[in-house]
Design brief:
With about 400 residues, the chain is mainly alpha-helical. The protein has one domain: Up-down Bundle (Growth Hormone, Chain: A), CATH 1.20.1250. About 80% of the residues lie in helices and about 0% in strands.
Length: about 400
């Protein structure tokens, strides 16, 4: 029951967090703002989520899942509700950049990595994939429902309804007992430091950090932050843009489960390098599609599947290279790099504008080829029959 509630909380939070990216242009036009007034708060939110991720990981280790999850959902509900009263760019910066940003630090990947790391190593990837799949499923549901509700009613109603739904989810977390198994006993500081960053593994840490940064640039930066604006800038209406984004995240839900299964049964380095090569080819292909609805939908289906395939494999690779103790805290720092890469890519491509999207997407595609090369330098994740991860 507790696992189901956590999964539903991930689903509800993900459904609500897609609203700024989906409705940014609608809000800009309704409030008479400039494009940068809505794009910068979204980018700031990604950066804030990155910076707060290690603290979110520590809170899960220290207090378990319940209290941090309730606080995250409550802050998200407040931020959504306050968006309807936004009258200036500063209001959006506070609501999206700070409120939604801090609430997003308790991500599905962080919760999934800690929950998936319990028990035997054989099924760590599968469990992580199942938890992580709730995020794209929630995003897809939010995109499809919100786009149609915004057309039928208005965007203020969408944000208010989302705030009520998230707040109801927070009360559900309050009412259902959740085990504190995620919390870790306190250890001497010297042991904590030794377990989290052994000196002989510094190079592996930085290689992994670079891979996570490139992964974030090619997912959070391109898809979460910019794809909706790209679709509408190419002439698609709100509903069609939402459908393309929903195709991406539906593909991501399938990819998380499939990749978790494969990561438990195949050489992790091989499949992960292959994922990055395919992603690079897709990004290099996109500028030549013409940005029609059919071509963007085809790209979205393939890219969403590939984008989700990497995370369960990355968690296994991180476990094999850095060690399996304190995987939540390690995941917190890797999430910083992932979201930092997303913020850099989102800001860079947003500054280039629609006319130069091809340059930005191609540049990130070439970076994915670099990530594929870095993967082969690391150790595979724990094999079947290994001690618990």
């Amino acid at each position: 029951m507790a696992s189901a509630i956590v999964a539903l909380a991930i689903f509800a939070g993900s459904a609500a967090r897609v609203l700024p990216a989906l409705l940014a242009i609608t809000i800009q036009q309704d409030r008479g703002l400039q494009p940068s007034d809505v794009s910068l708060p979204i980018t700031l939110g990604i950066a804030v989520s990155a910076g707060a991720s290690p603290f979110a990981a520590y809170s899960l280790e220290r207090w378990g899942v319940r209290a941090p999850l309730i606080a995250s959902l409550a802050l998200l509900a407040l931020s959504l509700a306050s968006t309807t009263y936004a009258a200036s760019p500063w209001h959006l910066t506070a609501a999206w950049g700070l409120g939604i940003g801090f609430s997003g630090s308790l991500s599905a990947s962080l919760l999934g990595a800690m929950a998936g790391s319990r028990g035997g190593a054989v099924h760590c990837g599968t469990r992580f994939g199942l938890f992580a799949s709730m995020q794209p499923l929630g995003s897809a549901a939010g995109l499809l429902l919100a786009s149609r509700a915004a057309n039928a009613l208005d965007w203020c109603f969408v944000f208010q309804a989302a705030a009520v739904g998230v707040l109801a989810m927070a009360f559900a977390v309050v009412l259902v007992p959740i085990s504190r198994r995620g919390a870790s006993p306190r250890e001497p500081k010297s042991k904590q430091h030794a377990a989290s960053r052994p000196k002989e593994k510094d190079w592996e840490f930085w290689v992994l950090a670079t891979i996570f940064c490139i992964c974030g640039a090619s997912t959070s930066g391109l898809i979460d932050g910019q794809l909706g604006m790209l679709c509408m800038g190419a002439g698609l209406d709100l509903t069609s843009s939402a459908d393309v984004m929903a195709i991406v995240v539906f593909g991501g839900a399938i990819g998380n489960v499939v990749s978790g299964y494969l990561a438990d049964r195949c050489p992790v380095r091989t499949v992960l390098a292959l994922y990055f090569v395919v992603r690079a080819l897709l990004l290099l292909w996109l500028p030549f599609t013409g940005f029609s609805l059919v071509e963007l939908a085809r790209f979205g289906a393939l890219y969403g599947l590939d984008a989700a395939l990497t995370f369960p494999a990355l968690v296994r690779l991180m476990s094999g290279s850095l060690g399996t103790r304190r995987v939540g805290r390690a995941m917190g720092w890797m999430t910083v790099m992932h979201l930092a890469g997303g913020a850099i890519a989102s800001a860079g491509i947003g500054a280039l504008g629609l006319a130069a999207y091809a340059v930005g997407f191609a540049g990130v595609g070439l970076a994915c080829l670099v990530a594929a090369g870095l993967v082969v330098l690391l150790k595979d994740g724990p094999a079947q029959g290994a001690p618990p991860c």
